[in-house]
Known about the structure:
coiled coil; 13-stranded parallel sheet
Amino acid sequence: xxxxxxxxxxxxxxxxxxxxxxxxxxxxxxxxxxxxxxxxxxxxxxxxxxxxxxxxxxxxxxxxxxxxxxxxxxxxxxxxxxxxxxxxxxxxxxxxxxxxxxxxxxxxxxxxxxxxxxxxxxxxxxxxxxxxxxxxxxxxxxxxxxxxxxxxxxxxxxxxxxxxxxxxxxxxxxxxxxxxxxxxxxxxxxxxxxxxxxxxxxxxxxxxxxxxxxxxxxxxxxxxxxxxxxxxxxxxxxxxxxxxxxxxxxxxxxxxxxxxxxxxxxxxxxxxxxxxxxxxxxxxxxxxxxxxxxxxxxxxxxxxxxxxxxxxxxxxxxxxxxxxxxxxxxxxxxxxxxxxxxxxxxxxxxxxxxxxxxxxxxxxxxxxxxxxxxxxxxxxxxxxxxxxxxxxxxxxxxxxxxxxxxxxxxxxxxxxxxxxxxxxxxxxxxxxxxxxxxxxxxxxxxxxxxxxxxxxxxxxxxxxxxxxxxxxxxxxxxxxxxxxxxxxxxxxxxxxxxxxxxxxxxxxxxxxxxxxxxxxxxxxxxxxxxxxxxxxxxxxxxxxxxxxxxxxxxxxx
Length: 557
C-alpha cells in the first residue's frame, strides 16, 4: 500500500521528542452551536462521515463547501460559513489551500472532510474551570471593588451577577495542556476510528483498521511533536514503523502519558512555591518584555498580565512566537504593535487594548468597560459588558455568551508599520465587516459552569453601532523612530460615509472654536480665567471618557 506510513530515516544524533496538544483548536475553534455537539461518541459522527465523503466524492481532494455542510449538519448557511472560517483560522497546515485563501474564496476552496470530522469531534470538549487568584492583594489591586465608572452602569443581567461574585482568572498554560492531554487520552480511540479504514470489509475488527499516511497527517490538527521542546517535526517523521490503527493508538497513548508526566513535573515546583505567581512552565514574554526562563522558542506565548494604571507597549522585537494573551489588566492602555497570528484579551476592565495586526483570530472574553482596537482576520467576543470595539476585520465578528451593552465601530487608528504588519499576516484593508455581526447562543456549552434552566436556548445580545458623533481617531505615539518609505500615514480601512461626514463636521467645529478663541479680545485676567475653565472641563472630559489612560504612556518611569 503506497500510502501507508513508512519508517522514518535513521537519525545520526538522538533527540528527545515531546508530544504537545495544539492549543489553537481548543482556544479559538470551539463554537456554541448545539447541532455541532454530539453526546453519543462516534455514533452520529460515523454516519456523518459517510455522508460527507459521499458529498465530497466529486472532488479528488475530499473537500466540502458551506452549502454541503449546511445541508448535512442541518445548520444555517451563516453558521456553515462560520465553521469554514473558524477552520481556516486554526488549521496548522500552511499547504492547505483554505489556510491561504482570501476571505471571499474560503467557501469555494472548502475544507477537507477529515479536518471537518476532527473539528466536529472536539466540539465535545469542556474547558477547564476558571480559577480564582491565590493572591487576594493582587486581585484587589487589579480588580478594585468599585470603579469610577460604576455609577454610570446599568444593572447586570442575572447570569452576569452570578459570574461576578468572584473574579475569574484564566487557568495556567500547563493546567490547560494537561486538561487537553487528558481529554485526548480518553477520546483518542474514537478519533482514530473516524480516520481509519477497514481492510477487506472487516469493519468490526479493530485489528483490521489501518491508517494511510494522508489520514495520519490529519492528526496534526490536534497534536504535534517537538524535538527538545522547541523544533516542530512532521508527524510522519516522529512516528515509528506501523500500519494498524491499534499500533497508532498505543503509540500515541504512550506519548500522551509521557507528556502528562512531563507536564506534572513542570507544574509541581510552582504548586509548592507560594512566591511563584506567574506561569513560567510554557515559554512566554512578561510585561516588561523579558523572556522567562526555560524559553521553548516556537512554543512561546507572550503574556501581558495584571497591569494596572500604566501603559505597556509591545513591538516585534519584544515578542517571541505568534500568540499573545492580555490577562486581567485594569485601567491601563496596552499597545501590541506587531504582526501576530492569535490574540486573547481576558478579564480586563476599564482599559484600552490596541492589537496591531492579528492574522488568524482574536478572542475577547469576560471584559468590562474595555475598548479594543484591532485589525484582524476574525474576532470572537464572549461574556463582555459595556465594551466598545473599533474593528478592521475581514470576517464577520462573532458574538456569543452573556454580552451586555456592547458597541462596535470602524477601525480608528494607525501606526507607521501597520500596513506592513497587515501584509505580513494577510489582512486585506479593502474588506471590513465590522458591522456584519453573527450572534450565537448565550450559553457556551464548552465551559464547565452551571447555567440557569432555559438559558441555553437564548440568543446572545448583539452590539449596537457607535453613534458617529462619538467616533474619534485614536492616536498612537510614534515609538518606531524614523518612518520607513512605506510607512502607514493614515487609517488603512475606508470609513463609511456617515462616519466620515461626522469626522469632517467635528473637525470643522473644532477649527471654528479655535478661530473664535483667537478672535476674542480679553484682558489678561479674563484670559487666565478662560484658560483655567477650559483646562478644568478638558480634565473632566478625560476622566469621564476614560481617555485619561492614554496619558499613562507619557509618564516617566
